[in-house]
């Protein structure tokens, strides 16, 4: 087994997270605890490995608008798009101080899958996710004005006659993985078109540049008057009243895909920052937990027309398990994350 495969093995990742937290707690000295009361003394910078204006940006700003009430500081988002998230991660790992004043906010699913497709230039063991904000399943959608497609069965039937173009924000993405797995299972021909972000993907569906698209569902639910979701890659339809046309892929097609959570935005941090400043890390985690039960946060989420049902906290162990599970899924379907799904033989 390679070092890369070891990095995100479930046991290793969970053990590493627990060891980091336990060792940090044990090494907290009295003078560190005294200084904890002063944290934070300046703004906290958040590295975002996508461009401004997308789902991660919206989720981040909505979250810290409430979080700053409890941690008593402001946040400075810095966006580093490029190379499917690699630019942002490599900038954070290479330049950010490990002082708990520098965090990363990303979408765990596509970014972890990115490491499956191509190992990173940094050591994955140096980084950890510690607070998931949402749980947003992947799905396939169309423009409501589409003249031919009304259901996912229409797309599959057409895909057996010609190649269907499927817009995606990036190839290494849980929603993209769901689309190619569906094509492989049904014998339809899908050609995935990476369009660099959800905004461009939605635009391509609107203009007809692609037949349909696969993304997290939250942004599409917010635009229900324009788009229609046809299927979800999850255990169930989490919003049956808002995604009335969406079938559950496993049930409808007899598949056995694991839940493909395509929007799992989470805060990440260097493990060395937790080791050096467990007092600061404790303040961060304790204050951010209060956000999820704050009525102002719920109001902000609903005002943004995002599904409140998708706001689900996940701590360090939940994040580690998700990263491990999505890594295993990615390794199983690694050959499909190339833009084209091939028919099964036999």
Helix content: 40-55%
- Give me the CATH superfamily of the largest domain: Bordetella uptake gene, domain 1
* Overall outline: globular
Radius of gyration: 20 Å
Strand content: 15-25%
Biggest β-sheet, characterized? 7 strands, mixed
Give the H and E element order.
Answer: HHHEHEHEHEEHEHEHEHEEHEEHHHEH
What distance separates the N and C termini?
Answer: 31 Å
CATH hierarchy class name of the largest domain: Alpha Beta
Mean of pLDDT: 88
Topology at a glance:
Layout: H1 3-7, H2 10-26, H3 30-36, E1 44-48, H4 55-71, E2 75-79, H5 86-95, E3 102-107, H6 108-117, E4 127-134, E5 136-143, H7 152-159, E6 163-168, H8 174-186, E7 189-194, H9 198-207, E8 212-216, H10 218-221, E9 227-232, E10 247-248, H11 249-253, E11 261-263, E12 265-270, H12 271-276, H13 278-289, H14 295-303, E13 311-314, H15 316-332
Parallel strand pairs: 1-2, 1-3, 6-7, 6-8, 9-10
Antiparallel strand pairs: 3-12, 4-12, 4-13, 5-8, 5-9, 5-11
Helix pairs in contact: 2-15, 3-13, 4-14, 6-15
């Amino acid at each position: 087994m390679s070092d890369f495969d070891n990095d995100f093995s479930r046991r290793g990742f969970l053990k590493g997270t627990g060891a980091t937290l336990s060792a940090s707690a044990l090494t907290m000295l009295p003078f560190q605890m005294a200084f904890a009361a002063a944290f934070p003394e300046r703004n906290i910078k958040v590295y975002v490995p996508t461009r401004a204006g997308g789902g991660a940006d919206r989720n981040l700003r909505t979250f810290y608008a409430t979080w700053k009430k409890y941690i008593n500081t402001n946040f400075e988002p810095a966006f580093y798009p490029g190379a499917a998230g690699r630019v942002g991660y490599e900038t954070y790992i290479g330049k950010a101080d490990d002082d708990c004043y520098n965090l990363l906010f990303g979408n765990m699913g596509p970014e972890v899958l990115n490491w499956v497709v191509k190992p990173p230039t940094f050591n994955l063991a140096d980084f950890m996710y510690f607070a998931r904000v949402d749980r947003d399943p992947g799905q396939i959608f169309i423009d409501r004005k589409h003249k031919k497609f009304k259901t996912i069965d229409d797309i599959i039937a057409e895909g057996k006659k010609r190649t269907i173009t499927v817009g995606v924000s990036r190839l290494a993405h849980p929603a993209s993985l769901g689309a190619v797995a569906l094509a492989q299972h049904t014998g339809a021909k899908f050609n995935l078109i990476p369009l660099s972000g959800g905004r461009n993907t939605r635009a391509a569906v609107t203009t007809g540049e692609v037949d349909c698209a696969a993304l997290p569902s939250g942004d599409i639910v917010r635009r229900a008057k324009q788009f229609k979701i046809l299927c979800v890659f999850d255990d169930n339809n989490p919003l049956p009243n808002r995604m009335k046309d969406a079938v559950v892929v496993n049930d409808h097609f007899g598949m056995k895909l694991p839940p493909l959570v395509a929007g799992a935005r989470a805060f990440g941090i260097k493990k060395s920052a937790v080791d050096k400043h467990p007092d600061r890390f404790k303040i961060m985690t304790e204050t951010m937990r209060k956000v999820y039960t704050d009525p102002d946060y719920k109001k902000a989420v609903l005002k943004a027309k995002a599904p409140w049902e998708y706001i689900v906290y996940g701590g360090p162990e939940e994040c580690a398990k998700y990263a491990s599970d999505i890594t295993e899924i990615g390794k199983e379907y690694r050959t499909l994350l190339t833009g084209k799904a091939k028919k099964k033989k036999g």
